[in-house]
From TrEMBL, chain A:
<dbReference type="InterPro" id="IPR002888">
    <property type="entry name" value="2Fe-2S-bd"/>
</dbReference>
<feature type="domain" description="2Fe-2S ferredoxin-type">
    <location>
        <begin position="1"/>
        <end position="78"/>
    </location>
</feature>
<keyword id="KW-0479">Metal-binding</keyword>
<dbReference type="Pfam" id="PF01799">
    <property type="entry name" value="Fer2_2"/>
</dbReference>
<dbReference type="InterPro" id="IPR036884">
    <property type="entry name" value="2Fe-2S-bd_dom_sf"/>
</dbReference>
<dbReference type="InterPro" id="IPR001041">
    <property type="entry name" value="2Fe-2S_ferredoxin-type"/>
</dbReference>
<dbReference type="InterPro" id="IPR051452">
    <property type="entry name" value="Diverse_Oxidoreductases"/>
</dbReference>
From TrEMBL, chain B:
<dbReference type="InterPro" id="IPR037165">
    <property type="entry name" value="AldOxase/xan_DH_Mopterin-bd_sf"/>
</dbReference>
<dbReference type="Pfam" id="PF01315">
    <property type="entry name" value="Ald_Xan_dh_C"/>
</dbReference>
<dbReference type="InterPro" id="IPR008274">
    <property type="entry name" value="AldOxase/xan_DH_MoCoBD1"/>
</dbReference>
<dbReference type="Pfam" id="PF02738">
    <property type="entry name" value="MoCoBD_1"/>
</dbReference>
<keyword id="KW-0500">Molybdenum</keyword>
<dbReference type="InterPro" id="IPR000674">
    <property type="entry name" value="Ald_Oxase/Xan_DH_a/b"/>
</dbReference>
<dbReference type="Pfam" id="PF20256">
    <property type="entry name" value="MoCoBD_2"/>
</dbReference>
TrEMBL record, chain C:
<dbReference type="InterPro" id="IPR036318">
    <property type="entry name" value="FAD-bd_PCMH-like_sf"/>
</dbReference>
<keyword id="KW-0560">Oxidoreductase</keyword>
<dbReference type="InterPro" id="IPR051312">
    <property type="entry name" value="Diverse_Substr_Oxidored"/>
</dbReference>
<dbReference type="Pfam" id="PF03450">
    <property type="entry name" value="CO_deh_flav_C"/>
</dbReference>
<dbReference type="InterPro" id="IPR016169">
    <property type="entry name" value="FAD-bd_PCMH_sub2"/>
</dbReference>
<dbReference type="InterPro" id="IPR016167">
    <property type="entry name" value="FAD-bd_PCMH_sub1"/>
</dbReference>
<feature type="domain" description="FAD-binding PCMH-type">
    <location>
        <begin position="1"/>
        <end position="222"/>
    </location>
</feature>
Amino acid sequence: MRVTLTVNGRRHQADDVWEGESLLYVLRERLGLPGSKNACEQGECGSCTVRLDDVPVCSCLVAAGQAQDRDVVTVEGLADPGTGLAPVQQAFLDAGAVQCGFCTPGLLVATDDLLRHCPQPTDADIREALSGNLCRCTGYEKILDAVRLAAARSGETAGER
Amino acid sequence: MTDTTARPRTDGGVVAPAGGAVGTARTRLEGRDKVTGAARYAADVPFDGLAHGWLVLSTVARGRITSMDTAAVLGMPGVLGVVHHGNAPRLHPAGLFGPDGQLQLLQDDRVPHVGRPVALVVARTPQQARAGAAALTVTYAQEPHDTVFRAGHPAGRPAPAAPARPDADLGDVEAEIAAAPVVVDQRYTTPEEHHSAMEPHASMARWEDGRLEVVDSNQGSFMVARVLATLFGLDQEIVRVRAEHVGGGFGSKGVGPQLVLAVMAATLLRRPVRVALTRRQVFSTTGLRPATEQRLRLASDSTGRLRAIDHATAAFTSTIQEYVERNTEASNVMYAADAIRTRTTVVPLDLPTPGWMRGPGAAAGSFALESAMDELAQAVGVDPVELRLRNEPSAGPVSGLPFSSRNLAACLREGARRFGWADRDPRPGTRREGRWLLGTGVACGSYGAGALPSTAAITARADGSYTVSVGAADIGTGARTALALVAADALGVPPESVRMRIADSRLGAAWFAGGSKGTASWSWAVTAAAADLRERLASVDRVPPDGVTGRGDTTDAIGALGKQERQSYGAQFAEVAVDTGTGEVRVRRMLGMFAAGRIVNPLTARSQLVGGMTMGLSMALHEEGARDEALGALVNSDFAGYHISAHADVPDIEADWVEDVDDSNPSGIKGVGEVGIAGTAAAIANAVWHATGVRHRALPVRLDRVLESGFPAAR
Amino acid sequence: MREFAYQRAGDVAGAVAAFAAAPGARYLGGGTNLVDLMKSGVESPERLIDVRGLGLDAVEEDADGGLRIGATVTNSDLAAHPGVRRRYPALAQAVLAGASGQLRNAATVGGNLLQRVRCGYFTDVTLPCNRRVPGSGCPAVDGEHHNHAVLGWSEHCVAVHPSDLGVALAAFDAVVSYETGAGPGELAYAALYPPVGDTPHRETSLPPGALITAVSLPAAPVAARSRYRKVRERASYAFATASVAAALEVRDGVVHDVRLAFGAVASRPWRAHAAERALTGAPATARAFGAAADAELAAARPLPHNGYKVPLLRNLMVSVLTELAEEAAR
């Protein structure tokens, strides 16, 4: 079947998509966007998290057909082409929240969504909101720092306005 | 390969002057690629004409393959071939450290355990390969199997001695125990555990112009290439292995089954083949930490001074490769005692071969030793921190060798101060918050340090840049960034002028990212190359267009090293809350103080240590491979069933270090990859005792175990 | 995964007709369970009928205090709905206690009710499992059953129902509405899952081809004072070891109304009728709560390695009821 969808603001069309493919597979293997990672393929780790119609989901559990005509944002679409890294990306980099980097794309999408809905989260908010994103390297502490840092910076920016 | 340049922090961190790069916090060189999704891992790299291989795993625990219906699968859409023991290339004996039976894949019809690869289905797309693999009917002649580990198993046999550390036999353990007023004699068990790096193993292999090219996910491309060449009978010159970005390893990413099978398929089908494992396949085929059963006998005088340490451990291995889990290492070096004895037993079973998993030996060994020390502290009536300080040795307790540096006492004292240990009521069960009982615990850990022979080259360019080429691996450790800092200081230039090339077997002989010895080994070689380059640059007026290259090889220098006890040390403190109604254990805070030599990059080193402590927390409370005894199969081989700590499990956690000068190698580096997990589980279990009054000698400290053993000390 | 077809249904009648026309079809909601099981080979439908576009995604508040929840309302939307939070707080808490944010964003109410068990023998197609392959055996009975059932199991299957949401639905007498080719129907949620018996593969009592369209909760003033508590090895993002949904109304120190259901202890969310009967009219004291728990758990038959679930459930029930009673007394 043919699947047409918008990814990171661009219309994409994939032909001969097999119905059994996941959105993650379409992104990685057909659209050349391997930023979203396949670490468990069963929704248990969050490494494949993308925003689907503005809501973060595990793209490994979205059937390709379900993505038809929908809007997808991946880690590749977080950065603003004009201004460089997105605030969450810069914060993850600066705080040392990135180690092997394999969970990072999903965490960034999840964090970006958390801060959109909850600009000043408590530590408990952060821990619960990101518990669907497993990480084996960092021990999460630096990830927590990064989210706090991103929140603080956006708070400063908001304050300057 | 991307060339990357060191950048200073962008959050206001000071850019160090030339010569002061080591010791300053630096964000990682490849960080930008990782946060934008641009970093390419082994399964991310496209190739023209790429075919995909899918593993078929054995479903019986012991037996022989009697038939395999490949014809039906070969007729399926997209299927290009099936590799199996009837057509696979013959392999030569090879392995990272001697011949490894695990790598002899598809060589015969024997099935040594559930989850052994028995075929690879190759197709045009991953789904077609997967469908083919699912459809491949394999029949087996099953044989009786034995997969149930216990220390007294009749198949158990003494492990061969470690080359550098034979079984300890200091003094007369039995006489000391018989004469001592206080004796702790307990058994401790730890379960099968799985590395669970986030990136599943993946490899791409292709033949190009008579050369074998591999894109892999591994912990040391040079050593992997050497094994691959030997295995397939190739000249190592024609084998190139790269692993630019690796999504974690923790010991599991040596020569993976996916790599051997990808090379087989690429050889047979004459096209590029990628084999990417599923999570379930990772659980089955890429090693594990074996279950252990350890007996610890500690004897002391009435003040807690140790008279005897008797540490006997048993762990399982497979029937195709002997892996020894060396749990007794720390008992040789942690504490002074009149008599020390260590024994290690291996029990070969019809199970997958275990392997190094973060803190191999030490993670499980420290649980037993440091739990027993806590029990001794309780029995003697001495504070557990003080007990350890009283038994601080001045030289290797068994070897008699001097410590290159130690500073465990400093870790204990500084950690106790920061944690607020002095305010602790030693009696268990005294702190309560609603339905929660609170407790605190301490434990120590160590892990062997050192460097292994490696080579490096540094090329100075006319534009003022320096390219460091070293066969290092960065599996998330920050090695790439750390080595840039080491090179900058060794060259006396700012880190911004250093470019790094790593993770390519063509860069020359280099040690693995393993044993906490990667950064120390590579740094030494980089330092040597820098010295060579500076000499060469001194003799030229200007850098010629093709640059000037200096080279380093540490083989001779390392061979000439004097004998010393070299370890990283740590003291960990934990506070837990235990729900008296449900048995749930939640860790509230943890502090680790470490003596780990020179810290090259505080930002990434701290992450390594905190990550190790978190894996220790996970080990203490969650991780357990559940095997069906009748089937020999793992029944929780996914992340829904095999729990690793999630974000909400990890509390306020802090890792820091004390000054620790080790001048036994020029960089002073000891390694931070493993010591973070050494002692964590004991600190948490000791804290659970302090909360509840019950000793938990079996990991993980599950809520059912806590609930069923009750809360006798609760006031 | 085998070859299969995917189609989006435009309306309920069309979905039901498409299902009837395609043997081996499955309705697809959020996909969080079905797509996973398709990859592992546990499920191999020939046609997926995507039902998320049927307009079943609203939560309606009845004037009398009840709720009607559309089958494709996502877990996230359900938990965030003010009417749910006000009228049935235990329901919102149960939903939020389940899975992760990403999964709750995709998972639907209908799909949640029909999710399959998480038993390790069921999810690995290389292992025997009566639920997946009738007659192949249940190795969990003598094997790894540390987190399996203590109530209502049979030797043919000892797996537990994994839903958190369902525990609250069981406590509040939910009714499941469905559509078939022969017209609409209703089924008490309590009757949705037949006893395991010797047919563990028969997982629901819905007529063949039925599409769940809504779940209704009758008005229950007691539910406004309700709570869901989940015990699990991880602090978040783990299936329950045991859970309790409870609602309590106390008048003059006496239990006037009480609802109780247990999760992760049986093949279905377990409504604790015996405990409710024992408590109604009893003093709202920890002693009475404990006696009521004992009345319910008298029927428990733990397996060799999950006996802990009995005291765990007792403690959990007493603890949650005590909290509710204390709050009511304030």
